[in-house]
Design a protein that fits this description.
- With 597 residues, this protein is an all-alpha fold.
- The C terminus is likely disordered.
Length: 597
Amino acid sequence: MKTIGLQDIYRIFTRKKVINTSSDTELARCLSTLDLTALGIGSTLGVGVYVLAGSVSRDIAGPAVIISFAIAALASMIAGLCYAEFGARVPRAGSAYVYSYVTMGEFVAFLIGWTLILEYVIGSASVVRGLSTYVDALCDNSMRRAFESAAHISVNHLSSYPDFFAFGVTLAFSAALAFGAKESSLANNIFTVINLSVVLFVICAGAFKAKVENWKTEPSCTEESCKFGTGGFAPYGIVGIISGAATCFYGFIGFDCVATTGEEARNPQKSIPIAIVTSLLVVFLAYFGVSVVLTMVLPYYEQNPDAPFPYLFDRIGWSWAKWLVSIGAISGLCASLLGAMYPLPRVIYAMASDGLIFKWMGKVNSRFHTPMMGTFSAGLLTGTLAAIFELHQLVNMMSIGTLLAYSIVAACVLVLRYEESETSEKKNDNIQLNVVSIVKLIINVNKTTQATKLTSRLVSSLVFLYVILCVCLTSLISMFSRNIYHFEMTILVPFIIIILAMIAILVCIYLQPVSGKRLSFSVPLVPFLPAFSILINVYLMMMLDGMTWIRFIVWMTIGLIIYFSYGIHNSKASTVNQRNSIRSIHLDVRRNSLKFT
């Protein structure tokens, strides 16, 4: 029996997916650029626009919440640009999963795909539970009382009752998605138009009552403390603005669902980049507009963090407007639910098609051209979680998978931008490596203009080192932010050293020759923009609580069991590699026979 060595394991983990972009797909290519833009807006601009601005302005940033949203939008736009480049480069269903499979290899791709399944399941469950909670509040909690009396649950860490409404809504939306991408996209467009119309109404109506003086007011303070800061435009200072930006960043999560439509967009190379950038711009303008209106109509310290708009209209005497806001919130939640559920079966389809998870989950229905089994199985899991968990328990797990995917995509942009050129002469691949030659290679003394295998591997190593330094830097910030703020040298010195090392690494990457491959869309200012995206995402991951990481580890353990017991043996990449090996053996035999002759 042949033993498997470390080299064999490395070869298996790094085997890559080869994509023929000219080949067709089983899915129906029916989505236009407008459909993709509406999908991105709908999945991103959910109920957060009705809550986030009020809570952040009152407790974290004050009226400077508009700056926090601008910073968060910039960071999200950089991540969006990275997704847009890959959408143009790899027009296939599966988003970050496929991107990492093409560039990083099978093992990293499985980890990302399994993480995305968790992220979309939890995201969908939290949205549908939020929808149920919102509708129930409008009905004076009648559903809660009925469900609790019918089937009370007395288990720790679970909901006190099974939410049959959330379960039913999830199955209904799963059916809508299973019966056609175009039909579900039409429903999403309607929800998104209603949502945007209500947001526009809030901005226009509030503008009539806006006063710039409310950006200059000061809250009443006691002798012990000022609960709401010092007043003015930035009552919590720079720290509040940055903290607010970290919170506001989550308001932009969701646009990545556009990148999963690579096999259903009519022109993915063009549509996906335009849709991602446009949807993020529209979402930022919505957040910016409502933040300005909220803080100008009422002082920031008088905001209602849970329901700022109904409270605002009550204060100005427009109680009837509360129902318009409720309609917009419900439409926003429905659009968010479609946006959260839409990419989930696509990721499952992509992984099942590659053989990494059970193949029956990726089977495409011949009539509706959708992965029906994957859609319903994902809907059943989502509905079950939404029925038995409370909203706050679901929300705590929403972020980690998305942030990890953002980081991987940004790293993939760096690796691919400096990959070996197809026309490279390979003259540097066989040089004798020593300290002097490595230093010369790092700073590109010879002014090499074509990327080789050696320079590509060098960039990959530098990117890996940069990510490690990002983890070290953000760990220091999360644990010792107060010490850094007060310039304590024991923490400040390593902090500065790490920053200088990161800058040096980026300069060395910048000096390397880039790949000559032409793209319909590419991220500008490489390597600096993707590197900044990695830093932001790693920082936000470090700010998550310990229980989130524990739940994430449990989920990944389940995934690894599936991969090592099923996926590693049924992977299509393994079959392709076997074919290539057989083909090379036949060529060798043919050459030897010719030589013998």
